[in-house]
Amino acid sequence: MMKLSQFWGALFRSFDTFLQRWQLTLPFLGSAITASFTGVLLSTAVTAQQLPAASAIASAGEATVYNRTSSAYEEVVPILTAQGVIDHELGDEAFEEAFVLTPGLRNSGLGPVFNNTSCVSCHIRNGRGMPEPGQLLLRVSDPNSVDVEDLTDAEFYDNAPPVWGIGKQIQDFSVVGSQPEATVEINWETSVGTYADGEKYELRSPKFNVTLADGEPLPEGVLISPRLPPHVYGLGLLEAIPQEDLLALSDVNDANGDGISGRLNYVWDVQKGEIALGRFGWKANSPTLLQQSADAYLNDMGIHSSFFPAADGSVEVDDATLIASAAYAQTLAVPTRAAIADLQVQRGEQLFNDASCQACHVSSFKTGRHKYPSLENQLIHPYTDLLLHNMGEQLADNRPDFEADGQEWRTPSLWGIGLAQTVLPYSGYLHDGRARSFEEAILWHGGEAEASKVAFEKMPREDRTALVRFLQSL
Ligand code: HEC
Ligand code: HEC
Ligand SMILES: [Ca+2]
Ligand SMILES: [Ca+2]
Ligand SMILES: [Ca+2]
Questions:
Q1: Phi, psi at residue 286, to the nearest 5°?
Q2: Which residues does 401 contact at the CB level (< 8 Å), separation at least 6?
Q3: What's the pLDDT tens digit per position in 415-425?
Q4: Ligand 1, atom 39, residue with closest C-alpha
Q5: 32 to each of 35, 159, 187, 467, how far by Cα in Å?
Q6: Which of 25, 49, 257, 443 has its CA 20 to 30 A from that of 291?
Q7: How many CA atoms lie within 13 A of 347 on its CB side?
Q8: Residue 326 · residue 290 · CB < 8 Å
Q9: Distance between Cα 265 and ligand 3 center (Å)
Q10: Which is the closest atom of ligand 2 to the Cα of 260?
Q11: Is 123 touching ligand 1 by the criterion CB < 6 Å?
Q12: How far apart are CA 297 and CA 291, in angstroms?
């Protein structure tokens, strides 16, 4: 539990200007008191399942940062050790380094084909990316591929046979002297619907037009999975959620009959050479932040590392840099909640629970062991179960990814999401960025979340606004 003195310290350290401080202090006064009170109530040992609904202002325990401005996603966990802070700063640099064509004085090895040149060019201000070439990735696979002899273990287990000549991801950029694998064009299709109270809404979904280097379309039957860059703060805490707590939440055969049957993805841990629980990526296809980073270097920038060396064993990024880039995501803090004393926000939280949103967007966990011990034993409110759920046909990519089938997605965390458009005004939601607002994100929910969606459609306007206000307070 954070002492009040620490609270104010953190609050004042975080804000850039006096003006922002002034505007944000007032609503926090009441909340600070609520937060300390909640802390007292929760200070006895609790397991994830017994935790009460989160209404605390500290989204991530002591790893919370009291900043609700456009830099809210760029703060280091405030209680890190001195070494942790050094790791974070090295990671910050690694995250920003742009790679260049070989031979270069430094950071050479880009490509030959790639999607972008640095981590930060997709994860701008650590927020979500845009549905545009260079940021949105297209993963591909060919279920008719028979050529599985040369596959590595990871490739063998992921149920996504590579497309001949392209592999599993389309790189639509290349260095001079090479050709991009394809050009990708995104067209938006719109559709309209009506809430129960008669108000109309419009939705949009992307259609991809892929033209290969030789002018041909993708071969018949190739599966495409679009992936928007997700926000990257708070990830160390998600990595620290004990495996048992996630197992306890999974309900593969829907034994409790609530229509929701989340399950874990099991993926290939390249470092350990074994099957492991998946946590990261839109389909929980990566087991650790270290592997996720190595994967990004290889697939998004064409940079070989010790995880994924070139055919001759050589690497283009050293282990220290690779580890630092993972450390950066591991030690990014989560912004505090806002306006929790606001009655409309409280009503919205009630509606969130009544509509069973919390069945997947699980509010509370207690973190367990982590490489950074400062992240341990924190009461966190990420609003995710990290489980895969069938989300219906309309969101389906129809492309399996390890155990995840073509209709399943991992519940994304909602903490800090209320600031998405403060940090980056163009931010969209869902795996392909199709939703321009929280309303649209909810209206696309189907499958196991169909009943939640219908509950939202039936709400009178006032309630829909309250629910959205609650999401904005996260
Ligand atoms: C071309 C754009 C692009 C670049 C460059 C890029 N990423 Fe990503 N990143 C993504 C996308 C898209 C995802 C989601 C991937 C998925 O669902 O499989 C992602 C996912 C992640 C995640 C997991 C987030 C989560 O919540 O599960 C981390 C961590 C991450 N990237 C770190 C990095 C690092 C470190 C680098 C640089 C080495 C990097 N990224 C470079 C687009 C990019
Ligand atoms: C059955 C599990 C489940 C339920 C119930 C559920 N969600 Fe979701 N939610 C998901 C999954 C999975 C996604 C990601 C889907 C995708 O990207 O295609 C998601 C995405 C979202 C997003 C966008 C997040 C982002 O990072 O882009 C928001 C906002 C959201 N849900 C809010 C809600 C609200 C509000 C409710 C209740 C009305 C709700 N959800 C009910 C599983 C669920
Ligand atoms: Ca290279
Ligand atoms: Ca490729
Ligand atoms: Ca269930």
A1: -130, 135
A2: 139, 158, 159, 160, 225, 265, 281, 283, 285
A3: 999 999 999 99
A4: 119
A5: 5, 49, 46, 23
A6: 49
A7: 11
A8: yes
A9: 30
A10: 1
A11: yes
A12: 10
